[in-house]
Amino acid sequence: MFLVRDTAPRKEKTMRRRAFGTIEKLPSGNYRAYWRNEGKNVRAPHTFPNKRAAQDWLANQQAQFASGQITPDRPAQDAEKQLVTLNQWKEIWLERCQAEKTLTPKTIQTYKSGYKTHLEKPFGHRILSTITVDDIREWYTGFDPTKPGAKKTAYRTLSTLLRAAVSEGLLDKSPAQLRGAMSKTRRGLDNPRAIVATPEQVRELAEAMPENLAITVLLGFWCSMRFGEITELRRKDIELGSDRALVRVRRAVQYAAGFGYTVGLPKTAAGVRDIAVPSAMVPDLRKHLERFVGESPDALLVHSPADSSRWLSNNSLNYYFKKAVAAVEGLDSRFVFHGLRHSGLTHAGQCGATLAELLRRAGHSDINTVLIYQHATRERDA
């Protein structure tokens, strides 16, 4: 319940006395809020983009006044902190993560993109302390049911931001408390990443790719490698014998808009690993090294078509990979490059690999992740 005063030009001022505080609409379209304490105005230190945000600030001030946190002798403490909106906190926290390198550029880009699409409108201008469990539950249950992945990612982003706000002292407790919202779910058979290619189809895929890129398909399937791990491989990372080979995964490259390419450790600590190349693939690897890789130890295994010292982009690879998928009879047209990794792990499990072996080969530290990779095929074969 608030008094609203409109000071915009060409509009008559309206004033209605409310229970606590005053809100004024300014010519800019923003809102100003204040309340009276012992005959003195207590003003918000900045204006608000909408009336709801101004109301939230007054409600927060009223709650502190009622609880004794604000008295004539003790004004509001840490006023700026009390007024931080989710938009402001997101910028502060991500800038800090970028400066301290606690998140990769790709993760920062993912957070920003998901936030803008799914979180900015419902929560962005809300003061942190006014976001409730019920608010989050209403948003979560109303999320587009056809986008479960985006729903989970958006909730994870919101939960991460609010937990960081608790650590910063901006909140006493995170309101992101929905049970099961962060649980890992098994991929359904309709998920493109759950499509399984057979070893025969993988060989056809490799043959349908340009010769200099065929090795990416084989490494994705037989060595269960991620795209960023493959595209950062260099000659020095390959140990080649007469009938055996070892791939040493020590780095991965990522591209993020606004950051460009960055090289760092693999996705997880377990991602630093040595992978024994199946003997049937060794001739393909040897041929690729001889024909397409420079003699320098730092020469990239695959590279940009325009520059052998630049990384192969996801877009460049996918352009050819989609064509290759279309050329393989019986392979679902939705099959994606990451599906090679899933297919390879599934095939290894069907051939008797233990969970420990699968974890080590895939570079995973979470056993449930490997179980998810395998679940779709178990359902298909049941």
From TrEMBL:
Concerning CDD domains, the annotation shows: INT_ICEBs1_C_like
Sequence ranges assigned to domain Tyr recombinase in this UniProt record: 192-382
Sorted keywords for this record are:
DNA integration, DNA recombination, DNA-binding
Lineage: superkingdom: Bacteria
Task: Kindly indicate whether the keyword Hydrolase belongs to this entry.
Answer: no
Q: Which residues form the Core-binding (CB) domain?
A: 84-166
Q: Which residues form a coiled coil?
A: none
Question: Pfam families from the entry?
Answer: Integrase_N_phage (PF26003), Phage_int_SAM_3 (PF14659), Phage_integrase (PF00589)
According to its UniProt entry, one GO biological process term is:
DNA recombination
GO MF term (any one):
DNA binding
PANTHER family (UniProt xref): PHAGE INTEGRASE-RELATED, PROPHAGE INTEGRASE INTD-RELATED
Family per record: Belongs to the 'phage' integrase family.
What is the name attached to this protein's record?
A: Site-specific integrase
Native organism is: Mobiluncus porci
